[in-house]
Structure formats: structure tokens, C-alpha cells
Amino acid sequence: QVQLVESGGELVQAGGSLRLSCAVSGRTFSSYAMGWFRQAPGKEREFVGAIRWSGGRIYYVDSVKGRITISGDNAKNTVYLQMNRLKREDTAVYYCAAASTGWGASDYKCWGQGTQVTVAT
Hints:
seven-stranded mixed sheet, globular, 11 strands
């Protein structure tokens, strides 16, 4: 099974930016679709977006489109979530996840432990 470790979460002011990282080990990074999810206090886990390595295809949900960028670095076995113009509603624990096939919201089987993002006003 793939091991995933998220990092980069911290306290930021509204309007600021963060880049979260997800380090991948245990299996070939490029063989997986990678997704980003988040869970805000008192809410269910939410799918944010995903990246497929074949053709460089990327998907974002409408609520964050235009404010986030998902990317990957094969040499470092790492995927990234760049977040800009952060809002208070972006406060959540952010998780990365790996899928062996497909890249829809229900396709992810291996999960990291999460990293906390807090947006202050």
C-alpha cells in the first residue's frame, strides 16, 4: 500500500496563500491518480480535486476552481495543492489520497493523516 504524508498546513490570514505537499512512498508515484480532500469542523469530507499523470489531466470542483492549482513532481514523489486568495471557509484538515484506477471522488483507497489549514480574518 502507498504511504502518504501531508505537510504545509498552518495559520494564514484571509487572502493569503499556502502550498500543501503530499510525499508518496511505498509504490510507484506515477502509477496513481492523486486526489485532495478536506474536512471542515462539523462537516463531511469534501473532494477538492485530483490529478492524473497520463496527459497531465487535472480536475477541480467548482467551489475552488480558479483559486487552487494541483501539480506533481515525479522526481520528488510529491504532489502539491497550491491555494490562493484563501477564505475563512477554507479552514479544514486537508488530506491527500491515492487511487489505483479511476479518479472520481469515490476512487481513493489510500489516505494520509492530514494537515491543518486555518484561515484567520
